[in-house]
């Protein structure tokens, strides 16, 4: 069994930074992970990529094609469709072994996850290649600090979860950039249910008109526990470790790993007759 995190979310939510931080954290604890760049529009990233989709196709290459005449968004969709048509290339590049752990840095175009089947095809291929797959959905914390945006963010993550149909961990990124006041506000949001958040919002002509709709959506989210968020502070090693543990449990990483035998008699050059102290 192999393991895969698909790091997804809107543009600017911190996906590449997340991949870099997780890679660095795993290096610190002497754990091997492979990071794969699946964003054909990426310009630069700080992590060491095991596989880079730009070696197959890039947005710049597509936009330079005078016959296609595509803008940035159309070129990105074209690149991802081309990748889906050439998944054998990706499989060969991964060259995965048993128990290998991959983190896929995915594009930030939200329609790839909400209604286009592109990412679903990639997920299905990973499953066929014997991967346990988890979607790690990143959402910028700054965009969920009021009730309406919080509900909108929850619906966006829910749309992605239903499209991909894989276990998901929803992450609020950039917590380290919040003021102390906003950190306290975020904490209150995470502790309360969605209905309570909406009920505590100031009434305006706009939200009064659609209040019943918002409360109905919040009721569905709460009653079925469909969407939960985990805050991430990349400046806090404990926060990074706790999130990684949640994801590992979600994809059942480590359950089949062999426990290394560290008894002295198995260490070269040590006398097995020496009593343990």
UniProtKB/TrEMBL annotation:
Question: Does the keyword section mention Lipid biosynthesis?
Answer: no
InterPro entries, alphabetized = Gpn, Gpn3, P-loop_NTPase
Gene3D superfamilies the UniProt entry points to: P-loop containing nucleotide triphosphate hydrolases
Q: Which UniProt keywords apply?
A: GTP-binding, Hydrolase, Nucleotide-binding
Q: Name one Pfam family in it.
A: ATP_bind_1
For molecular function, the Gene Ontology terms on record are:
GTP binding; GTPase activity
Say what the protein does: Small GTPase required for proper nuclear import of RNA polymerase II and III (RNAPII and RNAPIII). May act at an RNAP assembly step prior to nuclear import. Small GTPase required for proper localization of RNA polymerase II (RNAPII). May act at an RNAP assembly step prior to nuclear import.
Q: Which family does it belong to?
A: Belongs to the GPN-loop GTPase family.
Subunit structure and binding partners: Binds to RNA polymerase II (RNAPII).
Q: What is this protein called?
A: GPN-loop GTPase 3
| Gene name linked to the record | gpn3
């Amino acid at each position: 069994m192999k393991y895969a995190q698909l790091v997804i979310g809107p543009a600017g939510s911190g996906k590449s930074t997340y991949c870099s931080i997780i890679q660095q954290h795993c290096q610190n604890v002497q754990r091997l992970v492979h990071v794969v760049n699946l964003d054909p529009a990426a310009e630069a990233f700080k992590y060491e990529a095991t596989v880079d989709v730009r070696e197959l196709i890039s947005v710049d290459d597509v936009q330079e094609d005078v016959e296609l005449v595509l803008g940035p968004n159309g070129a990105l969709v074209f690149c991802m469709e081309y990748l889906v048509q050439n998944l054998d290339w990706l499989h060969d590049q991964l060259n995965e072994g048993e128990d290998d752990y991959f983190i896929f840095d995915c594009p930030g175009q939200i329609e790839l996850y909400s209604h286009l089947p592109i990412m679903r095809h990639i997920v299905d291929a990973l499953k066929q290649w014997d991967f346990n797959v988890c979607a790690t959905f990143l959402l910028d914390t700054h965009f969920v600090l009021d009730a309406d945006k919080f509900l909108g963010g929850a619906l966006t993550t829910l749309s992605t979860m239903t499209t991909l149909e894989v276990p998901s961990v929803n992450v609020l990124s950039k917590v380290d950039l919040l003021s102390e006041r906003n950190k306290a506000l975020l904490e209150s949001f995470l502790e309360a249910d969605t209905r309570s958040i909406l009920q505590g919002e100031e009434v305006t002509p706009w939200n009064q008109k659609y209040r019943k709709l918002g409360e109905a959506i919040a009721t569905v989210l709460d009653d079925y526990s469909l969407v939960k968020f985990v805050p991430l502070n990349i400046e806090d090693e404990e926060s990074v470790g706790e999130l990684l543990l949640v994801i590992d449990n979600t994809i059942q990483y480590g359950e089949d790993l062999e426990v290394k035998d560290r008894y002295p008699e198995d260490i070269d050059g040590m006398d097995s007759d020496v009593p343990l102290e």
